[in-house]
Every structure is written in structure tokens, then in C-alpha cells.
């Protein structure tokens, strides 16, 4: 009985998420299609916070979805144009995507393992506005990427090197 109740709750949550995703796509002026819904679903998984098109495609394959890599790229570009996702071009040139968030944040990126840490700092934001104003620029948008190496001994360098070597 407990399992049945839990399954019903999970199905209901999935239906709410699907409805929210349908609404989000329609608000963005996009037609609701299965590939768009599935890609949005994967982007909402916490582990896929900063994900490349290739990694998103692999996740879809793991889920048993038959969505081509070209479709993944096309949908991500449409999502970027519609403001659903934000594209980042971190060191190395590969684009990664994250769902667009309400609050601005910056990124720390480990050059060894690729770990991405998001942070916000009001003093940095204020300083950037001051600099822009001093130079006669009215800021409309900006991004800050800080690159370095994990210093806490918790670097996933070996794990990452293994993944890259295995491709």
C-alpha cells in the first residue's frame, strides 16, 4: 500500500513538472514537442547543472530516448535564444548550458577537473558597475569566470582524466 501511494505521488509530481514545462515552452513562444520536453527534463536534474550538448545527448540515450545529437544542439540553441538556458563558454571552448536563473551569479572553474562553483558577491557586482560607469558604459549584462586549481585536495582530476582518456 505504501509503495502504491508513493508511486502515485511521484506520478503526480511528474505531471506537475510536465505541465510547468509545457507552460514554460509556450511562454517562450516554442511549440511543445517531446524532444524539447525531454531535454528540459534532463536540464532540471541537479547533476546536469552545467552540461554540454554531448553529455545531455548521452543522458538522453541512457534514458532510452531516441533524440539525435543534431536535435539536441538545435533545441539548446532555441532555448538559448528564448532565454530558457544560458550558454557558457568556459576554458577549452566547449559550450555548457544551464537553466537561466533569476539571480546573477559568477563561476569558479577548476582547470584540472572541470568542477564549476557558482558564487555571488555584492562587492564584485558593485565594483563592476563602478568601472563601467567610469568608462561611460551602461552595463546590460556581464559574466565573470575565474579559473584556477582545486586547493582543498578534493580535486576530481584523476577521475576527469580517466573520463577524457576513455573517450
UniProtKB/TrEMBL annotation:
UniProt keyword annotations, A-Z: Cytoplasm, DNA-binding, Iron, Metal-binding, Repressor, Transcription, Transcription regulation, Zinc
Any one Gene Ontology molecular-function term assigned to this protein's record: transcription cis-regulatory region binding
GO biological process: negative regulation of siderophore biosynthetic process
Highest taxon listed in the record's lineage: Bacteria
Full protein name: Ferric uptake regulation protein
The species this protein was found in: Cronobacter condimenti 1330
Oligomer and partners: Homodimer.
Cofactor(s) annotated in UniProt: Mn(2+); Fe(2+); Zn(2+)
Function noted in UniProt: Acts as a global negative controlling element, employing Fe(2+) as a cofactor to bind the operator of the repressed genes. Regulates the expression of several outer-membrane proteins including the iron transport operon.
Higher taxonomy: Bacteria, Pseudomonadati, Pseudomonadota, Gammaproteobacteria, Enterobacterales
CDD domains: Fur_like (cd07153)
Coiled coil: none
Pfam families the UniProt entry points to: FUR
Subcellular location: Cytoplasm
Listed SUPFAM superfamilies: Winged helix' DNA-binding domain
Primary subcellular site in the record, as a coarse category: cytoplasm
Assigned GO CC terms: cytosol
